[in-house]
Write a structure and sequence with these properties.
Elements lengths: L2 H7 L5 H5 L2 H8 L3 E5 L3 E2 L12 H13 L5 E5 L5 E5 L1 H9 L4 E6 L4 H12 L7 H18 L20 H9 L3 H9 L5 H8 L5 H7 L4 H14 L5 H12 L5 H9 L13 H4 L9 H24 L1
Parallel strand pairs: 2-4, 3-5
Antiparallel strand pairs: 1-5, 3-4
Length: about 325
């Protein structure tokens, strides 16, 4: 080998490395909080948690405007430049509403599965979580856990990758979030609902158990069911939903059968009191759910009733 080639092959320690201390090298590797422009941070793909400009968000925006973001977000670098939000979507939205241009964030190298698990775990700590949010979050985390366990994912599979203790991923997830294995799978079934029916579940217009049964209907059957629910102003009981599931599996469910089942008188059915939407919708904020509207109407009626009682007692 020529002398020049030998010299080229020898890698000398740089002056900086030669005189740097172990402490300084550790410091260089330590995660730092950076002030990152909001325009360079994109949302996590298929983020299952809704970020709404509701009253709580407006309060957070006021806090950010006054004090800044006190807890940094967590982002990961993107291959093409910029960053992807892992934890801190609400803080980012509050910063935008507060007129901020930057946001403090921790930058961390994460693969897709690591990022998914952290994203889900950080949001499941919230006090109020919608059924649809849980459904998609559980599904995303479970699929990531299966990949980490080294086993391929099968769509709608109940037995997913095992860890060294012989436990299925769905069992581990259940232990982590305080749900049974069966309940985790039932939540994930909700991801099979068409969006308008899933929205009804979030608004508590359809109970959880009937919704799980409805999720087994084909997409066109669910659409026929939704249209019938809207036109007849009714929703299926658990027993009715189970019947429709069985008829669907037998290939005997159509819009006429759906209408017949929904319009039959239920054993505990009571006469409904209906108010036309146009008469009351103008009194509520646009972001109010049906449940919030109902609760407010009942509260106002209770106040009116108590006031009337006091007047009668005088």
């Amino acid at each position: 080998m020529a002398k020049s080639s030998v010299r080229d092959s020898i890698k000398l320690t740089s002056v900086d490395d030669l005189f740097s201390t172990e402490e300084s090298r550790v410091e260089q590797q330590r995660e730092k909080v950076l002030d990152i422009p909001l325009s360079e941070i994109s949302d996590f793909p298929n983020h299952p948690f809704k970020v709404k400009a509701d009253e709580a968000m407006l309060e957070m925006a006021d806090s950010v405007k006054q004090y800044g973001v006190l807890v940094p977000g967590l982002v990961r670098p993107k291959a093409g430049g910029g960053y992807e939000m892992v934890a801190g979507h609400r803080r980012k939205k509050a910063s935008e509403l507060a007129g901020k241009e930057n946001m403090p964030c921790i930058v961390r190298e994460l693969d897709d599965d690591q990022a998914t698990i952290i994203m889900v775990d950080s949001n499941l700590q919230r006090e109020s979580i919608l059924p649809s949010e849980k459904a998609f979050a559980y599904k995303m985390k479970l699929e990531a856990m299966k990949r980490q366990a080294g086993r391929p994912s099968k769509e709608n599979s109940t037995q997913v990758g095992q860890d060294l203790r012989g436990k299925y991923s769905v069992e581990i997830l259940g232990e982590q979030v305080g749900e049974s294995r069966n309940q985790i799978q039932r939540y994930i079934r909700l991801t099979e609902l068409i969006p308008p029916i899933l929205e009804m579940v979030d608004e508590k217009r359809i109970a959880f158990n009937p919704a799980v049964e409805i999720s087994y209907l084909a997409e066109n059957e669910q659409q026929d069911l939704y249209n019938t629910m809207q036109s007849e102003d009714c929703t299926p009981s658990l027993a009715q939903a189970q019947r429709m599931k069985k008829l669907s599996q037998d290939g005997r469910l159509n819009i006429d059968v759906i209408f017949s089942i929904l319009t039959e008188e239920k054993p505990n059915q009571k006469e409904k009191f209906n108010i036309q939407r146009e008469r009351i919708d103008r009194f509520f904020p646009k972001n109010f759910s049906e449940k919030q509207k109902e609760d407010l109407i009942v509260q106002l009626l209770e106040n009116w009733f108590k006031k009337r009682q006091r007047e009668q007692e005088r």
